[in-house]
Design brief:
It contains 10 helices and 14 strands. The chain is an alpha/beta fold and 299 residues long. It folds into 2 domains: 114 residues, CBS-domain (Roll), CATH 3.10.580.10; 118 residues, CBS-domain, CATH 3.10.580.
């Protein structure tokens, strides 16, 4: 058994968190086919492969949104919009170093290749890291869930709350603004989704890059109003919710972000995303920092 010190991620390798299913398409496949893969596999990006079967680029929802904004045909080849080259790490690299690379390069994922090879064996993204952190929190004897069921819970552990790690600002667009305006906001602020409010500033829904990709595929005019495609209701949590509970809600609701409310569901004060959760490398409370979490080194 190995004691985890300072951070839950300490000593862990990329192989502990990476997903082994890697979606790829030929770089000459169409944007339309690319959107189908994104939706079918519920992913944020996929690899584009050259004619020799080597990874040549990455196509993300951001690239798809940019193509929609530019008015490109759905028949446009993926190599016209992909980001190149892909960024890689190894399965034996430390999870901390991979996370540092993702943060410093401003990217959402790395692809995992075998040593001295371009053979891709996995992918690592923020949701994968958060999923691993949550599993440790869930299994820990000090977890909020387990403490709630104890007759004499340990109350000395300070637990992170959403307000400590959320992004404390919210950009909102009106329900009657065009999708072009929405895409400009998402691109400018590098958001994955934007809150949609009515003219009385009451939250009405959310438009995400997934919603935009589907609109693109279905031929919806980019000048259409946001209200035509938004997802509702708005997935929220309280700023005083424990981090563990908010992460669990995202995982089980299959969403990448929660809009954070203060006392009133209509008073949105921030956004809490999987990316924010991944920045807290010590799980959802200070038990990890105190070196109380133990995990099997081969897990």
């Amino acid at each position: 058994m190995a004691v985890m010190k300072k951070e839950t991620l300490s000593g862990l390798k990329v192989s502990a968190a990476m997903r082994k299913q890697v979606v790829s398409l030929p770089q000459d496949a169409t944007i339309d086919r690319g959107i189908t893969s994104l939706i079918k596999y519920k992913i944020s990006a996929f690899l584009a492969m050259d004619k020799n079967g080597r990874p040549s680029g990455v196509v993300s929802k951001t690239d798809i949104m940019s193509a929609y904004y530019a008015g490109l045909s759905l028949k446009t080849p993926l190599d016209n919009i992909m980001s190149s080259p892909p960024l890689f790490c190894g399965p034996d690299d430390s999870l901390e170093s991979a996370l540092n690379t993702m943060r410093s390069r401003g990217i959402y994922r790395l692809y995992v290749t075998e040593e001295n090879s371009d053979h891709v064996v996995g992918a690592l993204a923020y949701p994968d890291i958060v999923g691993l952190l949550y599993q440790y929190c869930h299994d820990c004897e000090y977890s909020h869930l387990k403490q709630k069921h104890k007759k004499h819970p340990n109350v000395t552990i300070r637990r992170y709350k959403v307000k400590e790690v959320m992004t404390p600002s919210v950009k909102a667009n009106y329900i009657d603004e065009s999708l072009v305006c929405i895409m400009e906001e998402l691109s400018k602020y590098r958001f994955g989704a934007v809150l949609i409010v009515d003219r009385e500033n009451i939250p009405s829904g959310v438009v995400s890059k997934t919603d935009l990709a589907l609109s693109y595929k279905h031929g919806i005019d980019s000048q259409a109003a946001a209200g035509n495609i938004m997802s509702a209701p708005v997935a929220t949590c309280s700023q005083d919710d424990f981090l563990e509970d908010a992460i669990r809600k995202m995982i089980y609701s299959d969403v990448h972000r929660l809009f954070v409310q203060k006392k009133d569901p209509q008073n949105i004060v921030g956004v809490f995303s999987l990316t924010d959760a991944a920045r807290i490398r010590s799980g959802s409370c200070h038990a990890c920092i105190s070196s109380r979490i133990r995990v099997d080194k081969h897990r």
